[in-house]
Design goal:
alpha/beta, six-stranded mixed sheet, 449 residues, single chain, 9 helices
Length: 449
Amino acid sequence: MATTPAGGSTLPSRIRLGDLTMRGRSFLAAGVTAVLCALVLDQRDLLRVGILLVVLPIGALVATSRYRYRLALKRTISPARVVAGTTARVRLELENLTRLSTRVLLAEDRVPYALGPSPRFVLARLPGGRRAAVTYTLRSELRGRYALGPLRLRLTDPFGLCEVARSFTGVDQLVVVPRAYPLGGVGGAGQWSGTGDSLTRNAAASGEDDITTREYRHGDDLRRVHWRSTAHRGELMVRRDEQPRQMRATVLVDSRSVGHRGDGPASSFEWAVSAAASVAVHLAGHRYGLRLLLDGRAAAWATADAADGGGAVLDDLAVVRLGGPRELADAVATLTRTGGDGMVVAVLGEAPQDEVNALAALGRHGARGVAILLRTTEWSAGLPDRRAAELEEQRARNAEVLRAGGWSVAEAGVADPIPEVWARATASLPPTAGPGRPRMVVVPTGGES
Protein backbone atom coordinates (compact mmCIF):
# COMPACT_ATOMS: atom_id res chain seq x y z
CA MET A 1 0.00 0.00 0.00
CA ALA A 2 1.30 3.45 -0.86
CA THR A 3 -0.12 6.68 0.50
CA THR A 4 0.50 10.20 -0.73
CA PRO A 5 0.68 12.60 2.21
CA ALA A 6 -2.13 15.11 2.34
CA GLY A 7 -1.35 18.30 0.47
CA GLY A 8 -3.35 21.53 0.37
CA SER A 9 -4.63 23.28 -2.72
CA THR A 10 -6.63 26.47 -3.08
CA LEU A 11 -9.34 26.51 -5.75
CA PRO A 12 -9.44 28.95 -7.47
CA SER A 13 -6.74 31.56 -6.83
CA ARG A 14 -7.17 34.37 -9.38
CA ILE A 15 -9.34 35.64 -12.23
CA ARG A 16 -8.20 34.66 -15.71
CA LEU A 17 -10.04 35.19 -18.99
CA GLY A 18 -8.48 31.89 -20.09
CA ASP A 19 -10.84 30.13 -17.65
CA LEU A 20 -13.83 30.99 -19.83
CA THR A 21 -15.33 28.04 -21.68
CA MET A 22 -16.11 28.08 -25.37
CA ARG A 23 -19.64 29.13 -24.49
CA GLY A 24 -18.37 31.94 -22.29
CA ARG A 25 -15.97 33.17 -24.96
CA SER A 26 -18.75 33.09 -27.52
CA PHE A 27 -20.97 35.16 -25.24
CA LEU A 28 -18.15 37.64 -24.65
CA ALA A 29 -17.29 37.93 -28.35
CA ALA A 30 -20.94 38.33 -29.31
CA GLY A 31 -21.43 40.97 -26.61
CA VAL A 32 -18.41 43.02 -27.68
CA THR A 33 -19.52 42.83 -31.30
CA ALA A 34 -23.07 43.88 -30.38
CA VAL A 35 -21.79 46.83 -28.34
CA LEU A 36 -19.59 48.04 -31.20
CA CYS A 37 -22.39 47.68 -33.71
CA ALA A 38 -24.80 49.48 -31.39
CA LEU A 39 -22.40 52.40 -31.01
CA VAL A 40 -21.92 52.63 -34.77
CA LEU A 41 -25.62 52.27 -35.62
CA ASP A 42 -26.83 54.18 -32.54
CA GLN A 43 -29.10 51.29 -31.48
CA ARG A 44 -29.80 51.41 -27.74
CA ASP A 45 -31.64 48.10 -27.63
CA LEU A 46 -28.75 46.36 -29.33
CA LEU A 47 -26.40 48.06 -26.84
CA ARG A 48 -28.38 46.64 -23.91
CA VAL A 49 -28.18 43.16 -25.44
CA GLY A 50 -24.43 43.52 -26.00
CA ILE A 51 -23.82 44.70 -22.44
CA LEU A 52 -25.80 41.74 -21.11
CA LEU A 53 -23.80 39.31 -23.22
CA VAL A 54 -20.54 40.81 -21.90
CA VAL A 55 -21.64 40.96 -18.27
CA LEU A 56 -22.84 37.34 -18.11
CA PRO A 57 -19.47 35.56 -18.68
CA ILE A 58 -17.46 38.19 -16.78
CA GLY A 59 -19.88 38.03 -13.86
CA ALA A 60 -19.81 34.24 -13.84
CA LEU A 61 -16.00 34.31 -13.85
CA VAL A 62 -15.84 36.81 -10.99
CA ALA A 63 -18.42 34.92 -8.94
CA THR A 64 -16.67 31.60 -9.46
CA SER A 65 -13.27 33.05 -8.61
CA ARG A 66 -14.57 34.36 -5.27
CA TYR A 67 -14.83 30.82 -3.98
CA ARG A 68 -11.52 30.04 -2.30
CA TYR A 69 -11.67 26.42 -1.23
CA ARG A 70 -8.67 24.94 0.54
CA LEU A 71 -8.61 21.21 -0.01
CA ALA A 72 -6.22 18.47 1.08
CA LEU A 73 -5.66 15.25 -0.86
CA LYS A 74 -4.64 11.82 0.33
CA ARG A 75 -4.04 9.14 -2.32
CA THR A 76 -3.71 5.49 -1.29
CA ILE A 77 -2.68 2.71 -3.69
CA SER A 78 -3.30 -0.85 -2.59
CA PRO A 79 -1.13 -2.67 -3.37
CA ALA A 80 1.65 -0.38 -4.63
CA ARG A 81 3.27 -3.30 -6.49
CA VAL A 82 1.05 -5.49 -8.67
CA VAL A 83 1.66 -8.28 -11.14
CA ALA A 84 0.96 -7.56 -14.80
CA GLY A 85 -2.63 -8.52 -15.56
CA THR A 86 -3.93 -7.88 -12.04
CA THR A 87 -5.67 -4.83 -10.60
CA ALA A 88 -4.76 -2.19 -8.05
CA ARG A 89 -7.23 -0.09 -6.09
CA VAL A 90 -6.67 3.65 -5.76
CA ARG A 91 -8.47 5.66 -3.08
CA LEU A 92 -8.66 9.45 -3.24
CA GLU A 93 -9.68 11.26 -0.07
CA LEU A 94 -10.39 14.99 -0.19
CA GLU A 95 -10.73 17.11 2.93
CA ASN A 96 -12.24 20.60 3.03
CA LEU A 97 -9.87 22.64 5.21
CA THR A 98 -12.16 25.69 5.43
CA ARG A 99 -15.58 26.33 6.92
CA LEU A 100 -17.03 27.19 3.52
CA SER A 101 -18.94 24.42 1.76
CA THR A 102 -17.79 23.64 -1.74
CA ARG A 103 -19.92 23.54 -4.84
CA VAL A 104 -20.00 20.59 -7.18
CA LEU A 105 -16.46 19.73 -8.33
CA LEU A 106 -15.26 17.71 -11.29
CA ALA A 107 -12.15 15.64 -10.49
CA GLU A 108 -9.76 13.91 -12.87
CA ASP A 109 -6.80 11.84 -11.70
CA ARG A 110 -4.23 11.65 -14.47
CA VAL A 111 -2.88 8.19 -15.27
CA PRO A 112 -0.59 6.98 -18.07
CA TYR A 113 -2.12 5.79 -21.31
CA ALA A 114 -1.02 2.20 -20.63
CA LEU A 115 -3.34 2.11 -17.60
CA GLY A 116 -6.39 3.25 -19.53
CA PRO A 117 -8.35 6.52 -19.60
CA SER A 118 -7.94 8.93 -16.71
CA PRO A 119 -10.77 8.36 -14.21
CA ARG A 120 -13.19 11.25 -13.72
CA PHE A 121 -15.57 11.89 -10.84
CA VAL A 122 -18.24 14.37 -9.80
CA LEU A 123 -17.79 15.41 -6.18
CA ALA A 124 -20.97 16.66 -4.57
CA ARG A 125 -21.15 19.56 -2.13
CA LEU A 126 -18.54 19.08 0.62
CA PRO A 127 -19.24 20.92 3.91
CA GLY A 128 -16.41 22.67 5.71
CA GLY A 129 -14.15 20.37 7.71
CA ARG A 130 -15.64 17.25 6.13
CA ARG A 131 -14.06 14.56 3.95
CA ALA A 132 -15.14 12.72 0.83
CA ALA A 133 -13.52 9.70 -0.78
CA VAL A 134 -13.73 7.98 -4.16
CA THR A 135 -12.05 4.80 -5.37
CA TYR A 136 -11.17 3.39 -8.76
CA THR A 137 -9.23 0.41 -10.07
CA LEU A 138 -6.35 0.18 -12.52
CA ARG A 139 -5.18 -2.77 -14.56
CA SER A 140 -2.18 -3.07 -16.85
CA GLU A 141 -0.94 -5.92 -19.01
CA LEU A 142 2.38 -4.11 -19.46
CA ARG A 143 5.01 -4.06 -16.75
CA GLY A 144 6.51 -0.72 -15.78
CA ARG A 145 6.58 2.04 -13.18
CA TYR A 146 3.69 4.45 -13.65
CA ALA A 147 3.07 7.85 -12.11
CA LEU A 148 -0.46 8.49 -10.85
CA GLY A 149 -1.54 12.10 -10.63
CA PRO A 150 -1.63 14.93 -10.17
CA LEU A 151 -5.31 15.20 -9.34
CA ARG A 152 -7.02 17.96 -11.29
CA LEU A 153 -10.14 19.72 -9.98
CA ARG A 154 -12.54 21.79 -12.06
CA LEU A 155 -15.19 24.22 -10.80
CA THR A 156 -17.87 25.56 -13.19
CA ASP A 157 -20.67 28.10 -12.91
CA PRO A 158 -24.32 27.03 -13.30
CA PHE A 159 -24.45 28.33 -16.91
CA GLY A 160 -21.24 26.64 -18.03
CA LEU A 161 -19.66 29.95 -19.03
CA CYS A 162 -16.37 29.47 -17.13
CA GLU A 163 -14.36 26.59 -15.80
CA VAL A 164 -11.64 27.09 -13.19
CA ALA A 165 -9.12 24.25 -12.96
CA ARG A 166 -6.38 23.67 -10.40
CA SER A 167 -4.09 20.70 -9.79
CA PHE A 168 -2.52 19.13 -6.74
CA THR A 169 1.22 18.52 -6.87
CA GLY A 170 1.24 15.04 -5.31
CA VAL A 171 2.23 12.16 -7.60
CA ASP A 172 2.41 8.51 -6.56
CA GLN A 173 4.03 5.47 -8.15
CA LEU A 174 2.40 2.21 -9.18
CA VAL A 175 4.85 -0.57 -10.04
CA VAL A 176 3.62 -3.31 -12.37
CA VAL A 177 6.05 -6.23 -12.14
CA PRO A 178 6.34 -9.10 -14.62
CA ARG A 179 4.34 -12.24 -13.98
CA ALA A 180 6.21 -14.81 -11.88
CA TYR A 181 5.32 -18.50 -11.97
CA PRO A 182 5.80 -20.93 -9.06
CA LEU A 183 8.90 -23.05 -9.54
CA GLY A 184 10.25 -26.17 -7.90
CA GLY A 185 13.66 -27.64 -7.34
CA VAL A 186 16.94 -26.19 -6.06
CA GLY A 187 15.68 -25.43 -2.53
CA GLY A 188 18.51 -25.49 -0.04
CA ALA A 189 20.91 -27.06 -2.52
CA GLY A 190 22.37 -23.67 -3.03
CA GLN A 191 25.51 -21.77 -3.56
CA TRP A 192 27.31 -20.71 -0.44
CA SER A 193 29.32 -17.54 -0.40
CA GLY A 194 31.01 -15.16 1.92
CA THR A 195 28.23 -13.65 4.01
CA GLY A 196 25.20 -14.97 5.76
CA ASP A 197 23.60 -16.39 8.87
CA SER A 198 25.89 -19.06 10.25
CA LEU A 199 29.39 -17.94 11.13
CA THR A 200 32.55 -19.96 10.67
CA ARG A 201 35.54 -18.32 12.27
CA ASN A 202 38.69 -18.99 10.32
CA ALA A 203 40.94 -16.62 12.19
CA ALA A 204 43.34 -18.19 14.61
CA ALA A 205 43.24 -17.04 18.18
CA SER A 206 46.95 -16.33 18.27
CA GLY A 207 46.77 -12.88 16.76
CA GLU A 208 46.50 -10.70 13.65
CA ASP A 209 49.36 -12.40 11.84
CA ASP A 210 47.34 -15.58 11.62
CA ILE A 211 44.23 -13.93 10.14
CA THR A 212 43.21 -15.55 6.86
CA THR A 213 42.85 -13.15 3.94
CA ARG A 214 41.53 -13.25 0.39
CA GLU A 215 41.37 -10.95 -2.63
CA TYR A 216 39.04 -7.98 -2.47
CA ARG A 217 35.72 -8.50 -4.28
CA HIS A 218 33.35 -5.87 -5.52
CA GLY A 219 30.94 -5.01 -2.73
CA ASP A 220 33.25 -5.98 0.17
CA ASP A 221 33.30 -3.63 3.14
CA LEU A 222 36.44 -1.47 2.90
CA ARG A 223 36.72 -1.59 6.69
CA ARG A 224 37.71 -5.25 6.32
CA VAL A 225 40.79 -4.44 4.20
CA HIS A 226 43.92 -6.03 5.70
CA TRP A 227 46.56 -3.44 4.93
CA ARG A 228 49.60 -5.54 5.85
CA SER A 229 48.62 -8.27 3.40
CA THR A 230 47.67 -5.63 0.83
CA ALA A 231 51.15 -4.10 1.02
CA HIS A 232 52.76 -7.53 0.80
CA ARG A 233 50.69 -8.78 -2.14
CA GLY A 234 50.39 -5.52 -4.04
CA GLU A 235 46.58 -5.83 -4.31
CA LEU A 236 43.68 -5.24 -1.98
CA MET A 237 43.19 -8.08 0.51
CA VAL A 238 40.35 -8.40 3.03
CA ARG A 239 40.14 -10.28 6.32
CA ARG A 240 38.35 -13.59 6.59
CA ASP A 241 38.33 -13.57 10.37
CA GLU A 242 34.55 -13.91 10.24
CA GLN A 243 33.41 -15.88 7.23
CA PRO A 244 29.68 -16.24 7.48
CA ARG A 245 27.98 -18.11 4.72
CA GLN A 246 24.81 -17.40 2.83
CA MET A 247 23.19 -18.66 -0.31
CA ARG A 248 23.48 -16.13 -3.11
CA ALA A 249 22.17 -16.00 -6.64
CA THR A 250 22.89 -13.68 -9.57
CA VAL A 251 20.16 -13.33 -12.20
CA LEU A 252 21.73 -12.43 -15.56
CA VAL A 253 19.33 -11.32 -18.31
CA ASP A 254 20.26 -10.76 -21.95
CA SER A 255 18.71 -7.35 -22.60
CA ARG A 256 20.10 -6.72 -26.10
CA SER A 257 17.55 -5.84 -28.75
CA VAL A 258 19.58 -7.87 -31.28
CA GLY A 259 19.35 -10.95 -29.05
CA HIS A 260 15.58 -11.27 -29.03
CA ARG A 261 12.69 -11.54 -31.47
CA GLY A 262 9.01 -10.75 -31.42
CA ASP A 263 7.14 -7.64 -30.30
CA GLY A 264 5.32 -6.55 -27.17
CA PRO A 265 4.24 -8.91 -24.42
CA ALA A 266 4.55 -11.90 -26.78
CA SER A 267 8.27 -11.33 -27.49
CA SER A 268 11.12 -13.57 -26.42
CA PHE A 269 12.44 -10.73 -24.25
CA GLU A 270 9.24 -10.63 -22.21
CA TRP A 271 9.47 -14.43 -21.80
CA ALA A 272 13.02 -13.97 -20.51
CA VAL A 273 11.98 -11.20 -18.11
CA SER A 274 9.12 -13.32 -16.76
CA ALA A 275 11.49 -16.27 -16.34
CA ALA A 276 13.96 -14.09 -14.44
CA ALA A 277 11.15 -12.82 -12.20
CA SER A 278 10.00 -16.38 -11.49
CA VAL A 279 13.54 -17.44 -10.59
CA ALA A 280 14.00 -14.38 -8.35
CA VAL A 281 10.78 -15.01 -6.43
CA HIS A 282 11.57 -18.72 -6.11
CA LEU A 283 15.11 -18.22 -4.83
CA ALA A 284 14.10 -15.36 -2.53
CA GLY A 285 11.59 -17.76 -0.97
CA HIS A 286 14.56 -20.00 -0.14
CA ARG A 287 16.37 -17.03 1.44
CA TYR A 288 18.91 -16.48 -1.31
CA GLY A 289 20.63 -13.13 -1.49
CA LEU A 290 19.87 -11.80 -4.98
CA ARG A 291 21.32 -9.40 -7.50
CA LEU A 292 20.27 -8.61 -11.06
CA LEU A 293 22.75 -8.10 -13.91
CA LEU A 294 21.45 -6.42 -17.05
CA ASP A 295 24.51 -4.53 -18.23
CA GLY A 296 27.90 -3.44 -16.93
CA ARG A 297 26.56 -1.51 -13.95
CA ALA A 298 27.44 -3.12 -10.64
CA ALA A 299 24.35 -4.50 -8.94
CA ALA A 300 23.90 -4.45 -5.17
CA TRP A 301 22.94 -7.58 -3.29
CA ALA A 302 19.37 -7.59 -2.05
CA THR A 303 18.48 -8.95 1.36
CA ALA A 304 18.04 -12.71 1.52
CA ASP A 305 14.35 -12.35 2.21
CA ALA A 306 11.33 -13.30 0.15
CA ALA A 307 9.84 -9.82 0.41
CA ASP A 308 12.93 -7.61 0.20
CA GLY A 309 15.16 -9.67 -2.08
CA GLY A 310 12.54 -10.78 -4.58
CA GLY A 311 10.78 -7.42 -4.48
CA ALA A 312 13.94 -5.44 -5.22
CA VAL A 313 14.75 -7.58 -8.26
CA LEU A 314 11.13 -7.43 -9.45
CA ASP A 315 11.18 -3.64 -9.23
CA ASP A 316 14.23 -3.57 -11.51
CA LEU A 317 12.69 -6.08 -13.90
CA ALA A 318 9.52 -3.97 -14.06
CA VAL A 319 11.36 -1.18 -15.87
CA VAL A 320 14.02 -3.07 -17.87
CA ARG A 321 14.01 -2.29 -21.57
CA LEU A 322 15.86 -3.63 -24.58
CA GLY A 323 19.29 -2.05 -24.94
CA GLY A 324 22.32 -1.88 -27.16
CA PRO A 325 24.51 -4.68 -28.51
CA ARG A 326 27.09 -4.34 -25.69
CA GLU A 327 24.70 -4.97 -22.80
CA LEU A 328 25.40 -8.70 -22.51
CA ALA A 329 29.17 -8.33 -22.92
CA ASP A 330 29.28 -5.74 -20.14
CA ALA A 331 27.14 -7.90 -17.85
CA VAL A 332 29.31 -10.96 -18.43
CA ALA A 333 32.43 -8.86 -17.79
CA THR A 334 30.97 -7.70 -14.49
CA LEU A 335 30.10 -11.27 -13.59
CA THR A 336 33.62 -12.46 -14.44
CA ARG A 337 35.17 -9.63 -12.44
CA THR A 338 33.18 -10.57 -9.33
CA GLY A 339 34.02 -14.25 -9.71
CA GLY A 340 30.52 -15.61 -10.17
CA ASP A 341 29.79 -15.35 -6.45
CA GLY A 342 27.05 -17.90 -5.68
CA MET A 343 24.44 -19.24 -8.06
CA VAL A 344 24.13 -17.52 -11.44
CA VAL A 345 20.87 -17.67 -13.34
CA ALA A 346 21.48 -16.33 -16.84
CA VAL A 347 18.59 -15.83 -19.25
CA LEU A 348 20.11 -15.52 -22.73
CA GLY A 349 18.80 -14.85 -26.22
CA GLU A 350 20.91 -15.15 -29.37
CA ALA A 351 24.15 -14.90 -27.40
CA PRO A 352 27.43 -14.16 -29.24
CA GLN A 353 30.17 -16.77 -29.07
CA ASP A 354 32.56 -14.57 -27.06
CA GLU A 355 30.09 -14.11 -24.20
CA VAL A 356 29.23 -17.82 -24.18
CA ASN A 357 32.93 -18.68 -24.05
CA ALA A 358 33.38 -16.33 -21.09
CA LEU A 359 30.52 -18.00 -19.22
CA ALA A 360 31.92 -21.43 -20.00
CA ALA A 361 35.33 -20.34 -18.71
CA LEU A 362 33.69 -19.20 -15.51
CA GLY A 363 32.35 -22.73 -15.08
CA ARG A 364 35.75 -24.26 -15.74
CA HIS A 365 37.22 -22.11 -12.99
CA GLY A 366 35.05 -23.69 -10.31
CA ALA A 367 31.57 -22.30 -10.85
CA ARG A 368 28.82 -24.62 -11.98
CA GLY A 369 25.83 -23.41 -13.91
CA VAL A 370 22.49 -24.25 -15.44
CA ALA A 371 21.78 -22.73 -18.83
CA ILE A 372 18.31 -22.36 -20.40
CA LEU A 373 18.59 -21.27 -24.04
CA LEU A 374 15.64 -19.61 -25.83
CA ARG A 375 14.74 -20.77 -29.30
CA THR A 376 14.19 -17.23 -30.50
CA THR A 377 13.24 -18.33 -34.01
CA GLU A 378 9.87 -19.44 -32.63
CA TRP A 379 9.09 -15.81 -31.76
CA SER A 380 9.77 -14.61 -35.31
CA ALA A 381 7.19 -15.44 -37.96
CA GLY A 382 8.37 -15.53 -41.55
CA LEU A 383 12.07 -15.80 -40.76
CA PRO A 384 13.99 -17.04 -43.85
CA ASP A 385 14.93 -20.71 -43.61
CA ARG A 386 18.60 -19.97 -44.09
CA ARG A 387 18.69 -17.45 -41.25
CA ALA A 388 16.68 -19.78 -39.00
CA ALA A 389 19.14 -22.59 -39.70
CA GLU A 390 22.05 -20.31 -38.81
CA LEU A 391 20.45 -19.39 -35.49
CA GLU A 392 19.71 -23.04 -34.70
CA GLU A 393 23.33 -23.91 -35.42
CA GLN A 394 24.57 -21.06 -33.25
CA ARG A 395 22.34 -22.12 -30.37
CA ALA A 396 23.52 -25.73 -30.63
CA ARG A 397 27.11 -24.48 -30.57
CA ASN A 398 26.41 -22.37 -27.49
CA ALA A 399 24.81 -25.31 -25.71
CA GLU A 400 27.80 -27.51 -26.49
CA VAL A 401 30.28 -24.93 -25.23
CA LEU A 402 28.35 -24.38 -22.02
CA ARG A 403 28.04 -28.10 -21.35
CA ALA A 404 31.80 -28.46 -21.91
CA GLY A 405 32.29 -25.75 -19.30
CA GLY A 406 30.25 -27.66 -16.73
CA TRP A 407 26.89 -26.03 -17.25
CA SER A 408 23.61 -27.90 -17.36
CA VAL A 409 21.76 -26.73 -20.45
CA ALA A 410 18.02 -26.58 -21.15
CA GLU A 411 16.13 -24.85 -23.95
CA ALA A 412 12.83 -23.03 -24.20
CA GLY A 413 10.42 -22.11 -26.96
CA VAL A 414 7.42 -19.88 -27.21
CA ALA A 415 5.04 -22.61 -26.00
CA ASP A 416 7.22 -23.96 -23.17
CA PRO A 417 5.93 -23.17 -19.67
CA ILE A 418 8.53 -21.52 -17.48
CA PRO A 419 8.13 -24.03 -14.59
CA GLU A 420 8.82 -26.97 -16.94
CA VAL A 421 11.88 -25.26 -18.40
CA TRP A 422 13.21 -24.53 -14.92
CA ALA A 423 12.64 -28.14 -13.89
CA ARG A 424 14.67 -29.35 -16.89
CA ALA A 425 17.37 -26.79 -16.23
CA THR A 426 17.84 -27.81 -12.61
CA ALA A 427 17.25 -31.56 -13.02
CA SER A 428 20.97 -32.34 -12.96
CA LEU A 429 21.69 -30.31 -9.84
CA PRO A 430 22.64 -32.43 -6.83
CA PRO A 431 20.03 -32.44 -4.06
CA THR A 432 22.40 -30.97 -1.51
CA ALA A 433 25.40 -28.71 -1.53
CA GLY A 434 27.89 -28.00 1.15
CA PRO A 435 29.84 -24.87 1.89
CA GLY A 436 32.43 -25.73 -0.72
CA ARG A 437 32.82 -24.08 -4.03
CA PRO A 438 29.88 -22.07 -5.39
CA ARG A 439 27.54 -23.41 -8.03
CA MET A 440 26.11 -21.38 -10.87
CA VAL A 441 22.70 -21.55 -12.54
CA VAL A 442 22.32 -20.00 -16.00
CA VAL A 443 19.12 -19.68 -17.97
CA PRO A 444 19.80 -19.11 -21.71
CA THR A 445 17.27 -19.23 -24.54
CA GLY A 446 17.76 -21.49 -27.55
CA GLY A 447 17.66 -25.12 -28.91
CA GLU A 448 16.68 -28.45 -27.48
CA SER A 449 18.79 -30.06 -24.75
